[in-house]
Amino acid sequence: MNTIIISAQADLGINVDGDQQGSLQLVNDIKGFFDGEIKELVEPTIIKSRNLSDRRKNEYEISRYNTTLYEKELELKENKENFVITLGGDETVTIPSALASKKARGEVGLIYFTGAPLFDTFDTTQNGNLKDLTVAAITGYKNKELRYYQPEPILSTRSVVIGIRELTPSQKENLKYSGIQYFTAQDVKEQGIESIMDKAFEIANTKTKGIHVAFSLSFIDPEYAPGVSEPVFDGLDESVVTTINEILAEHINEIMSYDFAGFNPLRDVDRKSEQISVNILAQLITAIKLKTTSEPTERKY
After folding, report:
1. 199-230: per-residue pLDDT in tens?
2. Which residue segment(s) compose the domain that 204 sits in?
3. 3-state SS of 256-297?
4. How many helices (H) and strands (E) would you count in the chain?
5. Rounded distance, CA 111 to CA 160, Å?
6. What pLDDT digit, counting tens, does each position of 271-286 carry?
7. Which residues have a Cβ under 8 Å from the Cβ of 111 and sit 6 or more positions away?
8. C-alpha triplet 292, 296, 298: angle, nearest 5°
9. Stretch (H or E) spanning 96
10. N or C: the chain end with fewer CB closer than 10 Å?
11. What's the total number of domains in the chain?
12. Is 297 part of any domain?
């Protein structure tokens, strides 16, 4: 199994300085123990819109950048011996990554860990930051402009979002009508992450040929991981993520690709978020080394 890291250095979907530096910082951190291939994709130099009333902020630039990223992702993911880890940047880079996994493998499931709902549309976004449309775009709920290069989405019935909080009424409506299964941070606290993960794999692993996993650092409460561009409070601590990674390792043969986004080193305090991020990636890379290239002979679901 070949582990390949794509450093997607972009903050076009969030417009906060530092987000584009997150992947570069993490690549530098993991070079000490990662001996695989690393590819970099730097965003173009543009004048970014910061107009809060602009509901289509940087749409053209995001689409152009993500088209290039999608093509690179697809080329790598069509080879089943490759396991691609994509490092953002803001969460919009997970759109082409997830859709490339869909195109490469056929029917795939999605498990997305995030504190921010990421389920707005062009009509409901309140600030025009298109990273908030990410999961809706991946799962085909409107936002087709953000996936024109691969219009076929990952099915919402095969998708799970875990850890969200601070839902607006419009986001709740979008989630309701999309049919996607989601669990809030409070659900995790009440039911336990093991129970939530069991349900997530049952959904994402049913009648699919692999699972795409995406992790936004906003999943963790900013008390523990302050290095994010838009903190979402009342979240979960790093011990929950350790358990998540242990469970992902158990299912590693069913997982085909992984995204990590949302780390902003300019917002970090005492490098706490950086260390958590490196630990997460180290656990994942270790698990991938044990992954086989063959399809699982027996599935739990």
Report:
1. 999 999 999 999 999 999 999 999 999 999 99
2. 2-288
3. EEEEEECCCHHHCCCCHHHHHHHHHHHHHHHHHCCCCCCCCC
4. 9, 8
5. 5
6. 999 999 999 999 999 9
7. 159, 160, 162, 200, 201, 204, 211, 212, 213, 214
8. 145
9. helix 94-105
10. C
11. 1
12. no
Q: Position 281: which residue type?
A: L
Chain centroid to CA 136: 12
297 CB-contact burial (10 Å; exposed 0-12 / middle 13-18 / buried 19+): exposed
Determine, yes or no, domain membership for 164. yes
Give the DSSP per-residue string, 118-167. ----TTT-SS--GGGGHHHHHTTSS-GGGGTTS--PPPGGGEEEEEE---
In a domain, 299, yes or no: no
In contact, 5 and 88? CB cutoff 8 Å: no
Task: Tell whether 242 is covered by a domain.
Answer: yes
- Interatomic CA distance for residues 222 and 118, integer angstroms: 17
Structure tokens at 278: 């490196």
CATH of the domain at 92: 3.40.800.10
CA neighbours closer than 13 Å in the CB half-sphere of residue 237: 2
pTM of the model: 0.96
